[in-house]
Amino acid sequence: GNSVTQMEGPVTLSEEAFLTINCTYTATGYPSLFWYVQYPGEGLQLLLKATKADDKGSNKGFEATYRKETTSFHLEKGSVQVSDSAVYFCALSDILRGSQGNLIFGKGTKLSVKP
Amino acid sequence: KAGVTQTPRYLIKTRGQQVTLSCSPISGHRSVSWYQQTPGQGLQFLFEYFSETQRNKGNFPGRFSGRQFSNSRSEMNVSTLELGDSALYLCASSIIPDRYTEAFFGQGTRLTVV
To answer: Mean of the pLDDT values across residues B38-57?
Structure first.
């Protein structure tokens, strides 16, 4: 079945460091891929998305490219800030059901950025 | 524009009881989905509703049920609560249930079963 695997955390970085959070997926067909962020005590917010192979999603300095050949959607940011401290979730839509309503999530990666 | 509202925010129940959680989607959104978040299992899909019809259901026992009203508000019910049902329950709404359309999440209801 469909699944998402992302790197285990926690990840601790100094401010202005480069961030990579790895995400790989298993899916039939061509799912849409997403990165969501969850700040403490909050629900999830969509950070970026890509709906087809080679698409690059970007938002707030974060980027991720949909790589079908490696079934990956790694999240990157060139210079992290303390305010980026949160839990990041990689997710895919269930293409067979064609709806974003039933997203399949990775386990989440907690990022802590130190000043 | 108001976001997705979930009530209550926190709930403590005893094993064997039942509970009802409520979700009010963003105005104009007709699709509502529910997810369970636990430290061990992560985020798992419960069910999805569109225009008062359940479109999809995740792999949860029949004790978990839901419904959607004509104003798109949704409720989920868990009967005969077990300790393992303790979790953060998240609701998400979107205009339509389409994989290209952004889903907006509420802050969740934290359920503790004792």
So the answer is: 91
